[in-house]
Structures are given as C-alpha cells and as structure tokens.
Amino acid sequence: MTTYIPSITIPGFILEKPAAAILLPIGLGTAVGFGVSPKRAQEKYLALKQPPYHPPAQIFGPVWTVLYASMGYSAYRAWTAGMNSFDPRKVALAKQGATLYTIQLGLNLIWMPLFFVLKRPIEATVDIVTLTGITGYLAYIWSQVDEVAGWALAPYLGWLGFATYLSAGVGYLNQWDFSDKERPMSEKTKDTKFVDEKDS
Questions:
Q1: What is the pLDDT of residues 119-136, one digit of tens each?
Q2: What is the value of pTM for the model shown?
Q3: How many other CB atoms are there within 10 angstroms of residue 179's CB atom?
Q4: Hey, which of 8, 27, 178, 180 would disulfide with 119, CB 3.0 to 4.6 Å?
C-alpha cells in the first residue's frame, strides 16, 4: 500500500486552494500537449490504423481539459476534507491519496510523449494500464474521505478505460511498431509525409 511521501507529493498549499488545484493539471496537460505539438499528434493519430469506435482527433483536447479540471477538483475536495477532519484515519487517507494523485498525474503526463514522440506503444500501454489501476485505487481511497471527491474521478476513470482500449488497439493493429508510419518528404524542406497519405 502506498503511503504519504511528502518529497514526491504535490504540496498541500496547492491542493487546499480550488483554483490552484484545478489549474495545475490543466496547465501541465496543456504544456505537454503543446510540447508534443497538437498538429503532429493529430497527424500521427490519423496515420495509424485505429480500432472500432475511435473518436476524431479533435475531441481529445476538450475532453482532457474537462477531465483535468475534474481531477483537480477531486484533489481539492479530498485534501481539504481530510485536513479539516478530526478523524486521524481520514487525515491519513487524504495524505496517502495525495501521493497517489501525484503519481497518477505523472503517469498521465508521460503517456503522450511515449506514444507520439518516442513511438513506444508497448510502454505507453503499460503506462496507461498502470495509470488506470492507480486511479481506481485513488478513487476508492478518496471516497472514504469525501464522497464527492471519489465520484469526481468517475468520468476520468471511465475515459482511462476507453483510452486503454484505444492505446492497446492501436498498438496491436500496427504490430506494436510506429517507426514506419512516417517518412521524410525531402531533405530540402525537411518536411514529413505519412505513409498512409497519397502522393499528390
């Protein structure tokens, strides 16, 4: 069982403020998304073979913004409820959950670089499976501190399940190898062309 580890946990002064708790995951997620390049990620996504029921690439940005906000709100609710409780068990669970929350946020943020930049679908799928398990346990932990905090993670957990299906499905359909999905168009422009595109 994971315990409270202050050295790797988001500080309490952030979690106790609703705006800071909500904006932190949104800001970090946005930074990673733009670091990878939204256009490049969408083009790579479209170049890969997709499993049934895959959504359009444009939907991911808005969905993740909402989910980051909901996880931040959950963190705020659980932390403040736990720290203001006279029940030592709730205090301990809130702190334990804060460490789990920080770990899951880190796993969340590294998925996109693993998948789109490093082109490591196996590692990305292992990452998201681990992330889903930790988030499920986090929801269980925080629901014992504040019921709303636990339920606030429900949409996120549901989406992670779907995202795990997509990650594994894309990996499987592309033989767990993304290396041949793009090739240089010319040395002069140093542009990129995807193998699924037709020659103009």
A1: 899 999 999 999 999 999
A2: 0.86
A3: 7
A4: 178
